[in-house]
Design a protein that fits this description.
Elements (H helix, E strand, L loop, with lengths): L5 H15 L7 H16 L14 H10 L34
Helix pairs in contact: 2-3
Length: 101
């Protein structure tokens, strides 16, 4: 049996989410994807939020961080609307350079 269990981790993440004002999660898939993303961040050099006594295994470290309620899961989609103006297609330079270097 896994310790902590999925349900224990979901409860802990939901405690953090509640304090952040984020919606609760109920999906194991969401939890697994968040743990995998955190493990990739650790591999890329992010500092650990808990002591690393798992022998450098980033996935185990990510689970431990969630178990210790150091991480929540933000489920809102980012706002992709920007205030930058885009150029109409006829104003974009699509020329190809044919000069030899």
């Amino acid at each position: 049996m896994l310790h902590p269990s999925y349900m224990e981790l979901i409860d802990r993440v939901n405690n953090v989410n509640e304090s952040m004002g984020e919606p609760k999660i109920g999906s194991r898939y969401t939890l697994v994807m968040a743990i995998a993303k955190r493990a990739r961040d650790l591999v890329d050099g992010d500092p650990a939020m808990v002591s690393d006594d798992v022998g450098g295994r980033t996935l185990s470290l990510a689970v431990k961080e969630m178990d210790k309620e150091k991480l929540g899961i933000v489920t809102a989609l980012p706002d992709y609307e920007t205030e930058e103006e885009t150029k109409p297609l006829d104003e974009v330079d699509l020329s190809i350079s044919t000069e030899e270097e």
